[in-house]
Structure formats: C-alpha cells, structure tokens
Amino acid sequence: MWPARRSRPVLRGADLTLRTGEVVGLVGENGSGKSTLMKILVGELLADAGTVTRSGRLGYCPQQPVLYERLTCDEHFELFGRAYRMSPGAERRSRRELYAALGFERYATTRADQLSGGTLAKLNFALALLADPEVLLLDEPYAGFDWDTYLKFWQIVARRREAGRTVLIISHFMADEDRFDRIVDLRDGKAVPDDHAWFPRHGPVRAAVSC
Amino acid sequence: MTTHGSLGMALFVRRFLADYGRNPVNLLVLVLVPVVFVVAAAGPMADAAKLLGGIGPSVETATAGWAAGFLAGIAMYFQTRAARAADRRLVLAGLPSARLVAARVATGLILAVLVSAAALLALAVRTGIDEPVRVIAGTLMFAVIYLAIGALVGALVRNPVNGTVLILFVWIMDVFFGPSLGSPDRLATRWLPTHFVTLWMIDLPSQHGGRMGDLGWALLWTIGALAIAWMVVTRTTRVRHGGRRRIRAGSARDQFATSLRMGLRDYRRNPVLWALLIVVPVVFIWLSKVITPDQPTSLSLVEDGRTVEPTFWLPDVHAGTMTPIAIASLATLAGLFVVLDARSGDRRLTLAGFRTGALLSARLGVIAVAVLLVTAASLVVTVAVFDARQWDVYVAGNLLLAATYALIGVCLGPVFGRVSGVLIAFLVPFLDVGIGQSPMLRAQPPAWAQLLPGYGADRVLLDGGLTAKFDQSGSLLLGLAWLLVLGVLAAWLFRRAPATPARTRLGG
Fold first, then answer.
1. CB of B479 within 8 A of CB of B400?
2. Which of A147, B236, B258, B462 sits in a 20 to 30 Å window from B24, CA-based?
3. Which helix (H) or strand (E) holds A137?
4. How far is B156 from chain A (nearest CA, A)?
C-alpha cells in the first residue's frame, strides 16, 4: 500500500520458449517465480529487463479466480467474449461447449460470489479457453477440481495438443509428470529443463520469454 | 409518418380502445369512481379536510382530478400488462416498434380525455365548474400523470390484483397526504405526484414553487409522466433481433456497451449501495432538520454582485446545507468501490484483449449513473425539509459536487486500497464540505478551505439554495476545473493499473 513499496528480484536469466502443439509443465519450489514468469509472459507484469515474444491469441487462467463477484457465469462469458472480439454467435457456441465439457451449465445464471470453490475454478478455467487460444497459460488451474473434473481437464489439454495448440501449466503434482511433453524447473531465478521429461519439439515458436 | 402509417396507427388505436371497452373492470370503475368520489364523497371529504387543516370547498374540485387519475392509472395498467406479450408478437411480425408505441400512448391519451370527461361531468352535476380552464386542464394533468404510474406498474407487476392494489396505494397516499386535504404549504409532501397540479387546479398558491411556480412544476410532472409512459411502453414492447446487430462484434463501441451494461448490473447488485442510499440521506439530511435548534444564523453570500450577510432561521436552512455532505460522502464511496471492485477483473479483461479506453469509459459511465443516483436519493429527502430559492442551481451545484467527489473516490482506490480508502473516503468530504465549507461554522470558508475541491461546487449550491439570483460564475468555473483535473488524474491512474510489457514484440 502507498507509500510503502517493496521490490525483490525473483528471476535472473529465466528463458522459456513454447512451441506449437506442446504441453509444458512449469515447476519449482514456493516463491521460485513461476507465477511471476507467467504474469510477465501474459503481460500482467512488466519485467525489469528482457523480452517477451508472442504469436497468436493467449488464454490466461490466473491462480486465484479473478472474476466480478456479482456477475453470473453467462455474464462473464459475454464480457470476455467481447474482450476476445468474438461474434456473439461464436461466443455462445463456445460457451455451450465449455459448459458441457466441464459440467457446470446449471450454474449459468448463478453469480460468481454464490458459486462453490470448484465451480468457480471451472469458470476461471473456461474463461481462458473461451476463444480457443493458440497459447494457453494456466497457473495451477485444477486446485479446486474434483477427480472427475480433473480427468476432464487433462482430456481437454490432450485435445488441445492434438489440435496444435500450446499449453503451459504451473503444477506442483509430481503425478502429472507423464502428462507433460517437457517440464521446466525454475531454480535460483533460472529456467532449467528437466532431463527425464524432455521431449524436444521443433514446431514454430508460439511464445518466448527471456528475463 | 406516411398516410399509410397514420391509417395503420388509427387501426391499432381503435383496436386498443375496443380492448379497453371489453374489460368489464374498466367500465365498472369508469362509472363507479366518478359517482363515488365526485358525487357522493366530495361533501364529507370537504368536511374532513377542514378538520385536517385544509380548505373545504377546494376538495370538491380536486375530486374530479382524483377520479380521473385513478381511472387513467387503472386503464393504462391493463393496457401495459395485458398487451406485453401480444405487442412483442406484433413487432416480431414486422410492425415498426415506434408505430406500436405511438398507438399505445395515443390510446392512453384518448383514455385520459375520456376518464377526465367522466370525472368533470360528475363534478358539473355535483357543484358546477367555476373556473373551467383551470379545472379541465388540471383534471387532464391528473390523468396523464397517472397514465405513467399505470404504465410503470403494468411493466413491473403481472398479477392484476397486486397491480390494482399498488395503484390504489399510490393514489391513496397522493390524495390523503396531498395539499387539499392537508396544509398547502407543507414541504414534506411536495414530492407526491399531483401535489403541484392539485394546488394549481384549486388556485391555492403553495409558496414553495420557486421561479417555476406551481403551474411550471405541474407541467413538468405532466410532461415527465408522458416521457416515462413512452419509455415504459417502448421497453415492454422491445424485441431483441439477434441477427440485426449494428455494432461490429469486438469493436470499441461494442466493448464499451457491454462493459457498461455489466458494470451497471454489478453495481446494482451491491446491497450495501442500496442501504447507504437510504440511510445516509435520512441520517445526514432529515435528522439534521429534526435536531436543529430554533435560532437564527447569518451567512456570507453574494447577491446582485454584492457580498451580503443575511440572517436565516436555522431550522429552515440547516438541512439544505447538510445535503452536500451526504452527497459527497456517497459519491466518494461509489467512485471508490466501482473501480476497486472491478480492478482485478478489469486487469484480466485487458489482458484478454479489452481496450483500456473502452473499459475506462464504461467505468466512468457507471460512476456517472452513481452520481445521478446518489444526488437524486439525497434530494428526494432534501425536498421534504428544505426549500431552495433556485432549485435548478442548487441541483446543478450538488451534481457538480457529486461528480467531483466520485472522481476523488476513483483516485483514492488505487492509491490507498480498500480499507484505508474507505476511511479516507469518509474523512475527505467531511473535512472539506462538512468543516471547511460549512456555512454553519463561519460566515464564509477560510482561506485554506478555498483550496479544497468542494469549494467551487459548494458556493454554487449555497447560492442556489439561499439566494434569488445566480452570482457564482467564478465558483462554477473553479468547480469545473477541479472536475477536469480529477478526471485526467483518474484516467491516468486507471490506465496505469493494467501494466503491459514495454518490450513485448507481438507476431511471428
């Protein structure tokens, strides 16, 4: 809060490149700068130095559901549809598909402040998917999901990989290791590729950050 | 409108009138109400009015207006309620919406003439009509005002029993607390719909009509009612054409319209807002009237270019000087919360592709609505306890103050955050308007208070409230300059919030 301001260097030479059709896991201990790196990539934070390159549309799902408390699920979709510059018809089609895929259509007219934690997480995730973005950036997206939704989540991610979309997921679950094409570990402010899960791809670069 | 269009409209008006005539409730009240109120009950009510402090014979004249008002309200209620779905179907079938609305409103006006004629006929039979122009015009104004009330209730209440009871309730309040049954110079009841119409109709000057006079206010109510009736009927017949979007999807205008609509929804769903809108004006304005000691006070004002220090009876003016404090506090909170509540969501929207300019315009649009709302809510209470010498200037000064403090709220949010922001949102208007500008503490504001944002607007509203002529052009310009500076600062703070990387390269 004003007038106090604190700053702490988090990332020192972190380089990350995302290519077409890959699912990348971003791991690291608490406070290692995973969310900071993702926020720089998406444009929410300004890096002190370095460059960010992006190609195509980005879909971003923040760690905490960032929503308007008193607007309903439908109203959120309408608002974000305008942000993505979708036509109303395309937005409604995509909205229906997402309700069906994640199973929360019955909450379409429920306000965000009256949703359970799990449904809120579904809405948070669905808003990132709405415009079918080329690059999807997910900051611990499945924290509030039940088992069934968790499985549906990975099905959606797999389908996106098949469609040539790129997904970057911040994760703490070692059980998810096999689901990633590669894993990037943030250590001492640097991005270190994990050798055990390294499946290099050579498609076009979708997004890259160096800071 | 073309000849074909006029003929088409005449057909609809005829059919709508036939629909009115075929409803037995309408015909029953068309005969019953004039007979009961104008012929049978007028005498006893005139006697009752004398006991309540009113003037007896005038009640007999006013009963024609009461009867016409009630009949018009009921008639328009059934027109609006019953026709809603069918009217939409007509528009879907291709009838231009404007023609349908014109036909509905024309039907309403013909019904107003019809019910007024019935009421006046009963009055002519009972006592005769001494001043025909005044009485006929007054009765018609009653009918038109109740057309709007009927249309409004028809749009909101589907159940005919509930709708009729609601109109009856409004009508009873209007009649029994009105000036002909009580005291004509009572301020507390002048917000009733037919207060000024009644006084003009029975030729009993209110003494609180100001520059507009009782007839001016009566005409304003009538024209306003007609505009409301038009808007209500337009809204009830509105059809959404999915394929007829004129705004390009995702354009700046489209984004602005959507975010404004959603912002207003979000704002109106905040229960604290509604509670504050009632509590703050009642506590600050009405209570100040109740607790003000009976004593005189002198204030420094400008009249005809000269500084004068007239003496006022404190209970007459105190509430009017408390209104700006209520308005400034409410506006600051509105500005603070509109921006703070939406802040993180707005950042995400901007990242998703929403234009910052469109979002900022929408937020300022919500704040403009909030400014109108808090000013209106406070003035509704003020009207009952304070009589401004120039209402237009007084209202304009309060609006300027509200806009100024709403923008201060917008600026406080990003700097101080939620909790500290709320404390400061109460503190700043209290220090500025409540202490610095207060005419109750000293005849004119000290030098330090003249540097504060509320000074210009406060001098304007005091000039409007307490003097007969506007002399505060300089203060008005100063207030507008504050508004401009705060607007630029608010825009800068808003644009600064969602950071975008300076070195981002988009594309391949």
1. yes
2. B236
3. strand A135-139
4. 21
Whether A2 is in a domain gets the answer: no
Residue that is last in its domain, among A132, A165, A186: A132
**The pLDDT value given to residue B501:** 36
Q: Is B258 on the interface with A (CB under 8 A)?
A: yes
Pair (A146, A186) in one structural domain: yes
Is B243 touching A (CB cutoff 8 A)?
no
Is position A35 within any domain? yes
Of B249, B417, B500, the CB nearest to A86: B249
Under 8 Å between Cβ of B390 and B467: yes
Asked, for residue A37, whether it belongs to a domain, the answer is yes
If you average pLDDT over residues B31-39, what whole number do you get? 81
Q: Do B249 and A43 touch (CB under 8 A)?
A: no
- How many beta carbons lie within 10 A of that of residue B508, not counting itself? 9
Chain A CB within 8 Å of residue B246 CB: no
Q: Which residues of A touch B354 (CB under 8 A)?
A: 82-83
Q: Does the structure's ipTM exceed the value 0.90? A: no
pLDDT tens, B46-63?
Answer: 776 666 665 655 777 888
Query: Are A149 and A195 in the same domain?
Result: yes
B426 against B149, higher pLDDT: B149
Structural domain of A92? 68-132
Distance from CA of B506 to the nearest CA of A (A): 5
Contact B354 A82 (CB under 8 A): yes
Interface test with A, best of B248, B260, B262 (most A CBs within 10 A): B262
- Cα–Cα distance between A129 and A141 in angstroms, integer? 12
Residues A148 and A127 in one domain: no
Could you tell me the strand order of the sheet in which A190-193 lies? A58-61, A135-139, A166-170, A23-27, A182-187, A190-193
Task: Indicate whether A153 and A49 sit together in one domain.
Answer: yes
